[in-house]
Amino acid sequence: MEKIKLGVIPLVYPTPIVLIGADVEGRPNFTEVGDCAIMGIEPALVAISLNAAHYTTGGIDGSGTFSINIPHTGQLSITDYCGRVSGRDVDKSALFRVFRGEQTQTPLIEECPVGLECRVRETVQIEQRRIFIAEVLECYVSPSFVAETEGGRRIASLNRLDPILYALDNQYYCVGPPVGVGYQEGVEPTPKT
Amino acid sequence: MEKIKLGVIPLVYPTPIVLIGADVEGRPNFTEVGDCAIMGIEPALVAISLNAAHYTTGGIDGSGTFSINIPHTGQLSITDYCGRVSGRDVDKSALFRVFRGEQTQTPLIEECPVGLECRVRETVQIEQRRIFIAEVLECYVSPSFVAETEGGRRIASLNRLDPILYALDNQYYCVGPPVGVGYQEGVEPTPKT
Question: Which of A21, A96, A190, B118 could form a Cys-Cys staple with B134, CB 3.0–4.6 A?
């Protein structure tokens, strides 16, 4: 083993930067999160993790719903701002045009290219982290980010969506060019000798 | 609301592409996963999701441990191959140099820049998806991906690590240039009118 041990670091990279939305004390609130992932396509599952004491967490506990809003790099400043200030101190509902998920009334951000309306299925608490595993009820996409194809409507390419990446070097990054097609790149390798 | 509804899609993007390692039937096995994320820094938590019937899942159930190995774009072909074939049919331990986590003996991949040794804390089953929430016990990094700084050793930039991204347009992507610094980009915006 020719590795250097860096210690107890959850070094999964990159993380997608998203804005989590929920009503808190009767008002929409949005917080920046990098702890967010797909947990399955069928059923359509996602997971997010928040500090149990944070303002948004209470809103999700109360309603059992939240939204995932995915900004693009042109929205980096306002996204980063939402991670720096608490909804306890700042009315972040005033920063965006808000619309409501049709099934849960959870608040979503009109300006973000993609918004997911989510309903909590399981909650796991580990120390001060509260992890919400949720099913996606609907995926709302801005028209200019939908591609029309022969097979119907589908989401635009990752370069068109232009999401914000984050890594534990504390830098934000954008997405680079495509490097391959899923499940078509693998050829049987020669076993190592 | 000026959105198009695309239906029940867990459209979080991009996902980081990783290779999940576990011993299955006494032999190291590695499978490609995009359902992987940080779930917290302190404690150091990660989450992965696998189909309950898949070969690797049984290995994690048995040992309560697994590894997350993060390939770079130069390893795209072998990574994609690991997602296309099952350990039931192919001995994927023959594809890599394998080393063992010091605390759990879980198998890791020497060739990947970063490997995380993980111990399962919670398991959540939703329909056929098995979600493992785990703590990171150690982060193993290849020496050429460690940056020496005044503050000590830390991980290299995301561009140096050059991970593989994936999105639901079924394309793989690389990482583009930095676009900002975490928690330093946000300025108080003018509220919408």
Answer: B118
